[in-house]
Amino acid sequence: MNALPLVERPDGAALFLHPNEKVTKGAFLADAHRLAATLPDAAHLLNLCRHRYAFAVTFAAALLRGQVCLLAGDLSAPMLAALARDYPDCVAVVDDPALATPFPTVLARPDGRPGHGPSALIPADRTVAIVFTSGSTGVPSPHHKSWGALVARSRAAAERFGLGEGSVTSIVATVPPGHMYGFEVTVLLPLHAACASWCGQAFFPGDVGAALAATPAPRILVTTPLQLRALHGVAASGLSACISATAPLDPALAAEAEARWGAPMLEIFGATECGSIASRRTVEGEAWLPYPGVTLQREEEAILACGPGATPVPLADELEMLEDGRFRLLGRRADMVKLGGRRASLAGLNRILTGLDGVRDGLFVVPDDIDRRSTARLLAVVVAPERTASSILADLRDRMDPLFLPRRVIHVDALPRNALGKLPRQAVLELLAQVSEG
């Protein structure tokens, strides 16, 4: 049976960065073995660690014990209750003793102190993780990940972004490790590519600036479009690149970031279902280039993403294949809304809405009965304290098809975005219910 190393970096290589210290391959493996020895027998392990290093050690410990790691971005009480129901043979690992869970719980506090742990070979076809979608289009759904597929994608990303051992790159990320994007780039990538992931604070602009100053060059900043807007005042000398994902990046914002930081603004395209499969430099145009080894095939109405170690996965997005092997992203199929025989992309409508002067945040909401009720229309929810609903509607009339104008513009103080800037549909519906009750 084909097996692949848990860590395929040179002995002594830095994998993770704490303030004022580096965690080497040996120290990381020692921490993983120590934690693995404390884990009870269980088929599944729910990784609830919030600190990036504790999260990475917990994932490695699960691999060493042969347990399948559950990764869920939604850690709400209803989601945890659903996981406890669906995975009764599960133990949870936390790095916060105050975090209450419905599972038997183990506390992880790895310290990264110098040490040496033996490496391990993991069967390539073994399912090592079940990753849940964010729930932005409905109920979070599980997707199984084999070790071979995860390693192959890390190797492809290393090749695409030029991560060679000749110059180890520091990864500073504003995204959490439990989402597929953060999991791939900040937890898995340091195990298979010449990079070291920062494990200190890096969410607020001041934290990001301090993290970049504390890490050795070259550096890559990993973030999202929403977070990138908040980082406009951050000094980021020594950046070799900035990477964004989770939503399409506005080319104007990308050009502004490149001019400010003197580094290319790159995007990763992927999804929980398939992981990262392509990248582009935003200012160079709309076309995406698949990762090395990744191919896209049309099968009836769907596009299948095919890559080493993974079964073909149908994409939830509609693509236009180009002659040179690249593709254009047309939008998520579930993102398309049809009214009066015409179609529009919700993402496109949202970009129009949030591009209006004075609209700090916003989104269009599709009624559940839009396919059954001919008079159904969209709603717009906005964070725009200095704008009236009528003035926003007036601006929208000049910019979009009248069929898709919202019937109502609802003002709120904030939208219930998660740590990646996504909006779980259930959270949006609960917000609207609260507004209606008010």
Topology overview:
Elements: E1 3-5, E2 14-18, E3 21-24, H1 25-36, E4 44-47, H2 52-65, E5 68-71, H3 77-86, E6 90-94, E7 105-107, E8 121-123, E9 127-132, E10 142-146, H4 147-160, E11 169-173, H5 180-192, E12 195-198, H6 205-214, E13 219-223, H7 225-230, E14 239-244, H8 251-261, E15 265-271, E16 275-281, E17 289-290, E18 295-299, E19 302-306, E20 313-314, E21 317-321, E22 327-332, E23 336-339, E24 342-345, H9 346-354, E25 361-365, E26 379-383, H10 389-397, E27 408-411, H11 425-437
CATH class of the largest domain: Alpha Beta
CATH topology of the largest domain: Rossmann fold
Q: CATH superfamily membership of the largest domain, which one?
A: ANL, N-terminal domain
Structural class estimated from helices and strands: alpha/beta
DSSP strand content: 25-35%
Terminal Cα span: 61 Å
Oligomeric status: single chain
Describe the main β-sheet briefly. 9 strands, mixed
Number-wise, the strands total 27
Strands in their spatial order, largest beta sheet: 3-2-12-11-13-14-15-16-17
Helical coverage, percent range: 25-40%
The radius of gyration is 22 Å
Count of DSSP H/I helices: 11
What count of structural domains? Answer: 2
Question: Please, what is the average pLDDT?
Answer: 89
Unreliable spans are none
CATH-level-2 architecture of the largest domain: 3-Layer(aba) Sandwich
